[in-house]
Amino acid sequence: MIERDNAILLENIRKILDEKGIKHCKLANRLGLSNAEFSRMLSGKRVVRACYIPSIAEVLGCDCNDLFRGAGAE
Does residue 45 or residue 72 have the better pLDDT? Predict the structure, then answer.
């Protein structure tokens, strides 16, 4: 279940980045991550820590819940 929720989180982050035309480097910089670290996070090779969620939502201009939209639905 956690892996599925993480996959949904990552998919939603990528989708919103693309929809809003936000550069990955802007979000990485805001999180205090290098572009390489952020890329590993988006690819699922690095865990998205809970402390990053509010900052990610703020940069993307959405609510934290929007990042998990679809999680938990069967």
Answer: 45
Q: Tell me the two tokens of residue 30.
A: 């805001």
Q: Return the HEC string of the chain.
A: CHHHHHHHHHHHHHHHHHHHCCCHHHHHHHHCCCHHHHHHHHCCCCCCCHHHHHHHHHHHCCCHHHHCCCCCCC
Radius of gyration of the chain (CA): 11
Q: How buried is residue 67: exposed, middle or buried, by Cβ count under 10 Å (0-12/13-18/19+)? A: buried
Q: Which whole-number Å values give the CA distances from 57 to 36, 38, 51, 74, in the listed order?
A: 20, 15, 11, 24
**CA 54 to chain CA mean position, Å:** 10
The model's pTM is: 0.86
